[in-house]
Write a structure and sequence with these properties.
Helix content is 26%, strand content 34%. It is an alpha+beta fold. The chain has three domains: 201 residues, tricorn interacting facor f3 domain (Immunoglobulin-like), CATH 2.60.40; 34 residues; 67 residues, no CATH class. Strands 7-6-10-2-1-13-16-15 form an eight-stranded mixed β-sheet, with no helix packed on it. Strands 11-12-17-14 form a four-stranded antiparallel β-sheet, with no helix packed on it. The protein has a three-stranded antiparallel β-sheet with strand order 3-9-8, with no helix packed on it. The longest helix is centred in the last third of the chain and has 25 residues.
């Protein structure tokens, strides 16, 4: 009896430990076929076997694809990308794309349909270009097979690179682990124009596999100059548009300033001999010097001469002193203020 109870207890412990594994969502296998054309265009078919439990995988899966890569000169370039087809379990599947930071996200499935629990095989086919790097003495294809953004562990990863007929890889490399890691957990087999890569361990969340093949120079046709010009314009379109807009605004303001913003021509300068209207000679002296010059005597003399010019006084003996002879039209109070009382005025 104790033996039977012990066996049942062991069975329950086994089932309790095994059930979470059964309910776990994961990618059992990830296989990618990369066909390289003579013109450098890649046709990629990814077959992803994933288990859905209705947790994170409800209606389908999504695949993130980067739209930027580094060329042979480590310059950031925008690659071509186009989805060809999406299938699930051998039948066409609905899909849509969404722009993400630095790339594009491919969603599989429909919003109104949930996946049955269990394993499903998702197949995504797409084309891409500008992936070949052209060095001075060789060409190279470096390919991130899985990407590193998956939220699920992976059981196994494999990739087959098919080169153009008659082209053989001169060297190969593989890197496994998180982004930037240099792990070598994969085996490589080359046969004719095909190179096969297969992982040798399971992968945790955030890990992936990147492969590289070195090709003879000229094995893949380099882009024509017209194509390179078109790509360059596309890569720098944002800078060109912003620079063009800034230049257009600058030209507009220069033209506006030239039309109405310039100061008019100075022309001929004509001196004005008369003081500004409403200013006495003494005030002109004050304004010109920002204060009275000569302790005020210059202003006083100017005022006396101004009175003589207007006929209020007659000045005499200008060589030795200033003496006035009469105040015909000036009030006595004004004469006293100016200090111009004369002998004749006193006598009168």
């Amino acid at each position: 009896m104790k033996t039977i109870a012990a066996r049942f207890l062991a069975l329950f412990v086994f089932l309790g430990a095994a059930f979470p594994a059964f309910a776990e969502e994961f990618i059992r296998s990830y296989h990618s076929v990369i066909e390289v054309a003579r013109d450098g265009k890649l046709t990629v078919t990814e077959s992803i076997t994933a288990r859905a439990e209705g947790q994170n995988i409800k209606r389908g899966i999504f695949r993130d694809f980067p739209l930027y890569a580094l060329d042979a000169n480590n310059r950031r370039t925008k690659v071509d990308f186009s989805v060809v087809s999406v299938e699930r379990d051998g039948a066409p599947e609905n899909w849509r794309t969404e722009t993400i930071d630095g790339g594009i996200r491919i969603y599989t499935g429909s919003a109104d349909r949930f996946l049955p629990t269990g394993e499903h095989i998702f197949q995504i086919t797409y084309t891409t270009a500008r992936q070949i790097r052209y060095f001075s003495d060789y060409d190279e294809l470096t390919w991130n097979v899985t990407g590193n953004g998956w939220q699920f562990p992976m059981g196994e990863i494999s990739a087959t690179i098919t080169l153009p007929q008659g082209v053989k890889a001169t060297d190969t490399a593989v890197f496994t682990g998180p982004l930037g890691a240099k792990g070598k957990d994969a085996r490589i087999l080359s046969e004719g124009n095909e190179v096969f890569f297969a992982s040798t361990r399971p992968f945790s969340v955030g890990e992936g596999m990147t492969v590289a093949v070195k090709l003879p120079k000229g094995a893949i046709a380099a882009p024509a100059s017209s194509q390179e010009t078109s790509w360059w314009l596309r890569d720098h379109m944002a800078i060109l548009i912003s620079g063009g807009g800034l230049l257009a605004v600058l030209i507009y303001y220069l033209r506006a300033w030239s039309a109405v913003g310039r100061d008019p021509a100075k022309g001929v300068v004509v001196p004005r001999w008369d003081a500004p209207e409403g200013l006495s000679p003494a005030l002109v002296n004050y304004v010109d010097n920002r204060g009275f010059s000569g302790a005020g005597w210059t202003a006083l003399s100017a005022s006396a001469l101004d009175l003589a010019v207007k006929g209020y006084v007659v000045l005499e003996d200008l060589k030795n002193s200033i003496a006035d002879r009469k105040f015909n039209r000036m009030r006595p109070s004004m004469a006293r203020v100016l200090g111009l009382e004369t002998r004749s005025a006193k006598e009168g």
